[in-house]
Specification:
The chain has 140 residues and is α+β, with helices and mostly antiparallel strands. Helices cover 42% and strands 32% of the residues. Strand 6 (123-127) and strand 7 (130-133) form a beta hairpin.
């Protein structure tokens, strides 16, 4: 009886730690997404790019390509909003789905449903102790 009690206590403690780790990962990803949104809205390209891995590869585009994409977006739009964020986290990787709205003077100009329509912000991996955007790693 005592062994079972100890096992139940250990399982409870371990499951709490797993939940806490998952919650921490989700909170860290949400913070990174908030930082990306804020960096875009203040037109700080460097603060956007700090979230991208130097090993980034997405549909054949590398880090420099995505930096150019962000330069174009910053030129074309004033604001970006991320809505309906859903995260799938596991084994040091995450896929983040959301609607990304680009606005000018609070008027919607373009909506991307990620990762289906673009995904250049959807695929993340833990690098050391931070989440970085890695792309889908596909070469076309």
């Amino acid at each position: 009886m005592t062994r079972i009690f100890v096992i139940v206590i250990l399982l409870t403690i371990l499951s709490c730690d797993i939940t806490s780790a998952e919650e921490a990962s989700e909170a860290n990803l949400r913070t990174a997404l908030d930082e990306l949104e804020l960096a875009f809205n203040f037109h700080h390209l460097d603060e956007i790019m700090v979230h991208y891995s130097t090993e980034y590869l997405h549909n054949g585009d590398d880090w420099e390509d995505v930096e150019l994409d962000w330069n174009i977006r910053l030129n074309d739009f004033q604001e970006m909003e991320l809505e309906n964020v859903v995260m799938d986290i596991g084994d040091g990787r995450a896929t983040v789905s959301f609607n990304r709205r680009f606005l000018n003077n609070s008027i919607m100009e373009e909506v991307l449903i990620d990762p289906e329509e673009n995904g250049d912000m959807s695929f993340w991996e833990r690098e050391f102790d931070e989440w970085k955007i890695i792309g889908n790693k596909k070469i076309y």
